[in-house]
Queue: 2 jobs
Job 1
Amino acid sequence: MRGHPEPHTLAGAYAMDALDGRDRARFERHLARCQECAREVSGLHEATARLAVAAAAQPPPTLKELLRAETARTRQLPPVIDGSPAASARRPGRTGPAGSRRTVIRWPAWVPRLALALAGIAVLAGIAVWAVTDTARLSGPLPHGGGIAAVLTAPDVTMIHAQVRTGGTATVVMSHRERSLVFAAAGLRALPASQCYELWLVGPGLDRPAGLLPMPSHGMTGPVIASGLRSGDKLGLTVEPARGTRHPTTRMLLVLAL
Amino acid sequence: MRGVETGADRFSPPRSRGTAAPPGVDLAALLALVAKGDQAAFEAVYDRVAAPVFGTVRSVVRDAGLSEEVTQEVFVEVWRAASRFDAGKGSPMAWVATIAHRRAVDRVRSEQRSAERDRRAASSVIAYDDVAEAVEDNLDRQRVRRCLGTLTDLQREAVTLAYYAGYTYREVARLLGVPAGTVNTRMRDGLIRLRDCLGAGR
């Protein structure tokens, strides 16, 4: 396979963050199954840590002050407990029935997940770089930024990609533990001002409205967060009048098993 | 001399096995306190690793303002994720350095502006020179420099371009005019040799 090196040989490049998004994702999938590789990578990280130490340079003293304020308003992540429901809820990737592609995002527990998840979204859904950078500033004031961060960093986070019937690609990053999902789309068909896209949680009972999608910017829509996910829910998408409706009035353009 | 005021010992990662207590309070023990929301412990961690973090970030990012911003993000991440540090999987310095380097690289790649890339390409070799020149008073630098010297030219260029300039192995291959497969093999061999030379293995 030209251009796709044997994952095992990529341990050095991976340890130095020298893999780009797709290569990195492939290697991490391999890493999840290969204990020996995980051991090798952690050994190589001891070497790269020395490279970091050798490059030491004092930051300006103001930085410490800034951080004091920053940490005071930043909630910490709880520890990961092995064998917790969240941990056992991780499943291997599988292909959904509706032509969707599902990836369970899995990496060593001590690797910060946020950047990976964001990079994954950016690469796979084609979300513009500006959106990723904006979302990545989670420590700053951001509308619903905290909620999105909680989903993206959840231990059971799963990513699904699917085609929207009328055009465009949807990416859903979801955590059952957080009972929430983050929806983003690229290339959705443009709507007149009188209409909008509405998300639905389609359960055994009534379909519940899960939010209106904002106007696209540079062809990219979202990300938006939908909460209150229940077991067995599916995600639906319809076109509705601009202010949204309580129940779907048009055909579902997307139905995703979550 | 930037960055050595606090002395070399303070940045030393704990020796490999972590059984002998390093001088002062163990960084791993401090991180355990940080995980419980201990601000003072966080500041102690900051004092010990801020220079390696900032130096690494600056070497990749180059821009001074952006380096400070990324360094700040790195430490917020250390604060947030301290509970995820697992001493069984690596040293605390490796954990922090991994966060820092990845954050720096991801930031640079997300910018992707060609002008910026070109400028960095022009200055990419400086990173190693910075390290090479700054050896006085710092045993860690001397050791790293000596060990980098034991690598083959290709191994050393591949490692320094990837780590200090933040290039992907495909970009390194293009810069060096060598097949990508060769570059990723050299990166791995080079890092293994470096690890063994530094006695940094686990």
Job 2
Amino acid sequence: MQTLGLAVEHYVILAGVIFTLGSIGFLVRRNVLVQLMCIELMLNSVNLLLVAFNRVYPANMAGQIFAFFIIAVAAAEAAVGLAIVLAFYRLKGTVMSDEGDSLKL
Amino acid sequence: MNLVGNVFFAVMAVLSLLGAVGTVSARNPIRSAVGLLLTIVGIAGLFLRLNAQFMGAIQLIVYAGAVVVLFVFVVMLLGPDASKVPSGPPKGWAARAFAGVLMAFFALGAGFLVFRARENLWLFTPVSPQHGSVELVGRELFTKALVPFELTTALLIVAVVGAIAVARAHGDQKAKAKPERLAPQKLFHGPLHPRDAGHPLVKERA
């Protein structure tokens, strides 16, 4: 019955799969909105990992504090990123990241 | 208890994985947002399973309550242009696919190494019921992590101001320009004052 218990490895695998899905989505998708959502997926998986390791070392709350700050930074990032998406849409008339080549010579 | 907890973990893990797959694969950005919401709710449930009640609540409030709503608002602002798919193959699709495969390879390798790192699985040991409570996290947050916590307020203020500055329409130059002053005769076709009734301003030529 000991093998039925939950271990950190399960959380590590789950977080790794979610992170991989997010990174593949960020690389493959061309819609800037969906790319931002994939960034949120990656941040969420890292949060899950931090809280899981905090559960293993319960002496202090460092993991949860880190996850808390990551959530705050992710909220700020989402606000600024979506503002940039709106400005980009006003400039180009589309939200496809392929069109963002204004700095190309 | 163990069985119930394991079933809960499995349900939440499947929920978050389904949400992640939906986020990546959905054609419509609004469906991607719903997939992201599903993942966030699943991860909040996993936080609860890890005795992190405070983090679960914060996850639901900030992510499901603010970030996803922000995404949905932007999708609404962009309208049908948000899901317009351009014709033709994407630029650099080979490099993108290669990078994706490389990422998946590294992640799977990392998971394999994690499983090989120890002889047995690293099982969770019971912790005090106070672990992850608002009281304990708050005490830690306001003693050891006070300076970063206060700096977070500055970060959020700068982010809000920056978001407004970036997203604001730059057509305000036109709005600020003073309208051309028209002569009263052109503005009003009728008399300016009741006492002028019957006496038109512009005298008709005889």
